[in-house]
Recover the amino acids of this structure.
């Protein structure tokens, strides 16, 4: 899969128990190293918002999800201004780091592909 979410080998890794067992600790280590959890963000907060498909997906968030997203950004920018991470009790835990925007983005991409198919259909007279 490619697009706004980028290429992903995750389905292949999840299908293999051995690969999943070996790569899960590396993935957890990398997510902790990247530092977005230390300022209270979740992974989908890092998606590039300037893409039109991501903008449309953001407009489909529920009011609660939009509020939570804005709050996380405000808290993260405040921590950035202070040059400090949040207290460890306020870090995003791995089980809380869920992909809330991914279903919306995939839906928008699917709609765009369907629209492209319908817009480029060849109608032939019998």
């Amino acid at each position: 899969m490619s697009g706004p979410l980028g290429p992903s080998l995750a389905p292949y890794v999840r299908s293999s128990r051995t690969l999943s067992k070996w790569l899960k600790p590396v993935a957890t280590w990398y997510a902790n190293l990247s530092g977005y959890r230390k300022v209270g963000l979740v992974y989908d907060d890092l998606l590039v918002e300037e893409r039109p498909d991501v903008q449309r997906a953001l407009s489909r968030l529920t009011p609660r999800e939009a509020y939570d997203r804005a709050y996380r950004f405000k808290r993260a920018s405040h921590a950035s201004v202070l040059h400090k991470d949040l207290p460890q009790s306020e870090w995003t835990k791995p089980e809380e780091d869920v992909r809330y925007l991914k279903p919306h983005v995939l839906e928008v991409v699917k709609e765009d592909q369907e629209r492209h198919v319908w817009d480029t259909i060849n109608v032939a007279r019998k």
